[in-house]
């Protein structure tokens, strides 16, 4: 049967003759080429707009100063969900009902938790554990075992993770700083990615994987995660759902202490820790962009092993949830003995060279400094250096003015005078 368009041409042909048909075909060809040109230009424009958008996003997020709001904003817990033993998610919505600013997958929120002293909240950071969404932020908190009598910062009875697990329920409110952090996916990048998450360090990794799958990113994603066993394995179903939604995501799960009932190749892929031997078995090459977040032991062994495997240092991005200095990535890891004077406390202390940071030295010498994350992110431990020089073990997660440093990641380079 003839299509209506062909019928039109036949009847036209009867009227126009062969030359007329050729002319009509010529015009149609012209129109088709014009249409293709317009579509190509449109595709190029859209791709350019995407690239521009991504570059702007990247630039905005790389600026620690450009936070979505200043100070703290009140949020309400809209839902809670248990993810694994001692590991609970909190869904957060703004109390003012105004729109929720976007964040970069991998970034974290800084919480000001109430204490008896209103002027001195307990400051703790938690990574956003879901992809950016319009309606809520989600964090996931692992309850950290600790001594009965003291919180980590010496204030009796205070602990961020216990506060969340004990006191935060649907309807509770929380004072939160805007999303921040420089550990996030570069949207302008086209290298395939390897995401590595150990224990509760899986939170920013899940956010990244979910965002990549959601935006149908064409890069291949390898997600290596490591837990003790199925009891301590959060987000198993979430990762499996992501892998089912795309052929681009390869999951590899390591259990270090599997239960007898945990089935190899079903519940987990590999017995042991996430290490470079496992990466070499699974990955086709080392040419990937790596994003790592995990316990200090994992970071301290894996980052140098990646460097040894020939991964360029600029391909390795990592986040530490607490004190974790990665040797080989910073000159500040080596620091000679020197004198450190804390002027306001009137204490002169000797830096031996093996301390973790100025904050450690201060605490050992009885100088009281505020701190929140001990990882160079929250800015609570900022102090002025009145004389001398310090080096940061990693790029500070907050903007500093001239002469300021973050005591939790700063090490003296020669004698220094600190205004504290
Ligand atoms: C960027 C970032 C993102 C994070 N994301 C998450 C997350 O998604 N989920 C999650 O559960 N946790 C996350 N954390 C960790 C979280 O902020 C808290 O550190 C954790 O909940 C423990 O706090 P706490 O108050 O319960 O414990 P505390 O006992 O008060 O200890 C707080 C932290 O400081 C360390 N510490 C305490 N005292 C000392 C000391 N004297 N010397 C050295 N170290 C000490 C502890 O090891 C612990 O990491 C993140 C941390 C950072 C920096």
Automatic annotation (TrEMBL):
Q: Cite the 2Fe-2S ferredoxin-type domain residue spans from the record.
A: 338-420
Where the record annotates domain FAD-binding FR-type, the positions are 70-186
Query: Which EC number(s) are documented for this chain?
Result: 1.14.12.17
Where does the record place a coiled coil? 24-51
Gene Ontology terms, MF aspect:
2 iron, 2 sulfur cluster binding; flavin adenine dinucleotide binding; metal ion binding; nitric oxide dioxygenase NAD(P)H activity
Which top class of enzyme applies to this chain? oxidoreductase
Gene3D superfamilies per the record?
3.10.20.30, Nucleotide-binding domain of ferredoxin-NADP reductase (FNR) module, Translation factors
SUPFAM superfamilies reported for this sequence: 2Fe-2S ferredoxin-like, Ferredoxin reductase-like, C-terminal NADP-linked domain, Riboflavin synthase domain-like
Cofactors per UniProt? FAD
Residue ranges spanning the membrane: these are: 191-213
Q: Which UniProt keywords apply?
A: 2Fe-2S, Coiled coil, FAD, Flavoprotein, Iron, Iron-sulfur, Membrane, Metal-binding, Oxidoreductase, Transmembrane, Transmembrane helix
On the tree of life, the source organism's domain of life is: Bacteria
- Stated name of the protein: Flavohemoprotein
Please name the source species. Answer: Lacipirellula parvula
Upper lineage is: Bacteria, Pseudomonadati, Planctomycetota, Planctomycetia, Pirellulales
């Amino acid at each position: 049967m003839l299509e209506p368009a062909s019928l039109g041409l036949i009847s036209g042909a009867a009227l126009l003759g062969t030359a007329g048909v050729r002319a009509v075909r010529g015009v149609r060809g012209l129109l088709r080429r014009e249409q293709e040109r317009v579509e190509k230009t449109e595709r190029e424009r859209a791709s350019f707009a995407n690239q521009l958008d991504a570059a702007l996003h990247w630039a905005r997020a790389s600026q620690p100063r450009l936070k979505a709001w200043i100070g703290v904003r009140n949020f309400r817990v809209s839902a809670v969900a248990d993810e694994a033993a001692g590991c609970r998610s909190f869904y957060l919505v703004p109390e003012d009902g105004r729109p929720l600013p976007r964040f970069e997958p991998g970034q974290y929120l800084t919480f000001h938790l109430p204490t008896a002293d209103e002027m001195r909240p307990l400051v703790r950071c938690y990574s956003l554990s879901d992809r950016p969404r319009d309606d809520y932020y989600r964090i996931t908190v692992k309850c950290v075992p600790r001594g009965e009598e003291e919180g980590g910062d010496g204030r009796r009875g205070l602990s961020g993770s216990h506060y969340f697990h004990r006191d935060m329920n649907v309807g509770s409110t929380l004072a939160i700083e805007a999303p921040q952090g420089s550990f996030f996916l570069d949207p302008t990048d086209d290298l395939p990615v390897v995401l590595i998450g150990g224990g509760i360090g899986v939170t920013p990794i899940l956010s990244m994987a979910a965002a990549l799958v959601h935006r149908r990113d064409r890069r291949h994603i390898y997600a290596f995660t490591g837990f003790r066993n199925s009891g301590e394995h959060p987000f198993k179903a979430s990762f499996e759902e992501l892998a089912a939604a795309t052929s681009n995501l390869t999951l590899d799960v390591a259990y270090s202490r599997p239960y007898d009932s945990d089935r190899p190749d079903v519940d987990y892929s590999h017995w042991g820790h996430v290490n470079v031997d496992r990466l070499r078995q699974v990955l086709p090459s080392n040419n990937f962009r790596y994003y790592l977040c995990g316990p200090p032991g994992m970071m301290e062994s894996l980052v140098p092993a990646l460097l040894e495997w020939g991964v360029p240092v600029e391909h390795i991005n990592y986040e530490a949830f607490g004190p974790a200095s990665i040797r080989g990535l910073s000159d500040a890891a080596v620091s000679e003995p020197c004198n450190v004077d804390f002027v306001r406390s009137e204490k002169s202390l000797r830096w031996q060279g093996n301390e973790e940071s100025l904050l450690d030295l201060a605490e050992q010498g009885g100088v009281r400094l505020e701190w929140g994350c001990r990882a160079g992110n929250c800015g609570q431990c900022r102090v002025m250096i009145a004389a001398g020089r310090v080096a940061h073990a990693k790029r500070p997660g907050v903007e500093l003015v001239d002469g300021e440093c973050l005591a939790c990641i700063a090490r003296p380079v020669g004698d220094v005078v600190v205004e504290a």
